[in-house]
Amino acid sequence: MSPVNALFVPQPFLFICILILAKSPSRAPFKGSPSLLQAYEINNKIIDEINDDDDDDDIQFPQPLTPVDRALRASRFWSSAVPVIFNYYSTYTKLNLLNRLNPLLNRPCLTDSECEIIWSDLHASGASVLESTINDLKGFYVKTGQIIASRQDLFPREYTEALSGLTDYLDPMSVQLVRKVVERELCLKGERFEEVFREFDEIPLGAASVAQVHRARLTSKYGGHEVAVKVQRPGIEQKLLGDIKNLIALAKPLRGVKEMPVDYYVVFKELEDQLADEFDFVAEAAAMDRIWNHLIVDPRTGEKRDVPLRMPRPIPELVTRRVLVMDYLEGVPLSRAAEEMRKKGIDPDGPEAKIFGEKLLRSLTDVFSRCILESGFFHADPHPGNIFVLSDGSIGLIDFGQVKQISGRAKNTLAKVMVALDDRVSDTNPEDLETIGNLALELGVELREDAKPEGPAAVAMWLFDGSVKDLPGGYDYGELSPNSPVKELKSFPQDLVLVGRSTVLLKGLSSRLNIPWSLSAEWAPVARQVLAGSGSKKVNRKVTLKDVGRLVKSWGKGKVERGANKLPKGARRRLAAAVVWARGTRRSGN
């Protein structure tokens, strides 16, 4: 191995490499239930009937950014980003030069350990600058830091550790400002805050770039139950839209640069076009309803079906563009699950945790297959801060501010890709690679002219099959590897940017849990049903023993799980260890 590539070779533009994963809301036209539509109309009238005679008139709302503020903010961004980029480029160039000159001068080449030290020092410096910049600027850049922190499989330890504090919590608004926003948005003329909320926790459950969430209890007038109240930060919209313009300006000169994994300009333009929807909580509430209503009813039969996770439901009469009141889910985000396990005496790396990890992945995979392949409308931000481990052991999914609707054609082609990946004889069979590659191109994926013939199939496997160790064509699985199939991408279909983002986040989750996971294998049954319903000839095949095995496994899984939960703690741990060992043996082929 070349010393330049030892251990981890960062892209020179490390600061922006993660931004294909950045916040990217995109919605279909509003399709809320009648109750939400009525609430929207009512609450628009409420906003015009705000009671100005309250006790908190001295609370000052943040003022919109002035042109000078925006210029200073952009200057801070550029003054931080450019030196980091330059340092990576200069180090990369220096190591390459040394690698060529040392043999000519009869000097030994740098060892892997020496290169590791050089890169580690550079990562530490870059991570420190990035953390400082994000904490200073906040806004859109916070999401950047959250994504880096959640991708231990992709980014150096120095970055993930430095930014881990951004995962769940940001500098919160004062409770006085929160109450002021809520009163202006929700309270009818003459109605007091205490007439809506019997209890309202002053310390927020979480504070993110767009909003923060408080636990509360409604008065009997509004049902009396426990709720979560999501409150938008005043003046945040203009700040985030200005941030995305900076990223567009950074990405535009990089179009066509071979070292860049993808065309980030296309990604950021979609963000700019769609980011405004992130600030509309009425649309978010409608998205919650739409996704839940799809999940609970089988579109083929019209019958009710089980949903393997829980979602909050909005309170229709308490929803406005800037405040969203919804069911409260008791639990902790996945990013803090390991800490909670240790408190309960469970080893986060032990067999019980691994079985729960598989349950978690299976639940998320099931829900996303139904949404993406059946309706094409899905939650587009499944990072660890939005996935909850609830107090009863079930799984929760929150924050529907980022959703996406893909076209019927894209949905069906994705289904064909899943079936082709699942049906392949091997990872190197030429016929399978041709079929998978052609479907990837049909999705709108474009590769560079000098890409290998196996490139399209390798990209599909990289996106949808995390269990593959060796990609066809000699490509590396690491996203930032110089030999990654992602480097072959000339352009990625804008309509599928968020599908790719969601699959990458699920893949990162499986890596974080150290569980090999193939989305294509898990999605294939739903994909076949979707294609059968659309009249595609791609799924006309005989029922195989593999299908029967899946059916039996699905039928027995619930019974075994319920029985295991009744065992004593020691016996349950031994059973979990045996199950994990058996699964590992089966996967290794022993």
From TrEMBL:
PROSITE patterns: PROTEIN_KINASE_DOM
Domain of life: Eukaryota
InterPro entries, per the entry: ABC1_dom, Kinase-like_dom_sf, Mito_struct-func_regulator, Prot_kinase_dom
Domain named Protein kinase: residues: 199-551
One Pfam family of this chain: ABC1
Keyword field contains Methyltransferase: no
N-terminal signal peptide: 1-22
CDD domains: ABC1_ADCK3-like
Keywords from the UniProt entry: Signal
The keyword Signal is assigned to this record: yes
Gene Ontology molecular functions: ATP binding; protein kinase activity
PANTHER family tied to this protein: ABC1 FAMILY PROTEIN, PROTEIN KINASE SUPERFAMILY PROTEIN
UniProt name for this protein: Protein kinase domain-containing protein
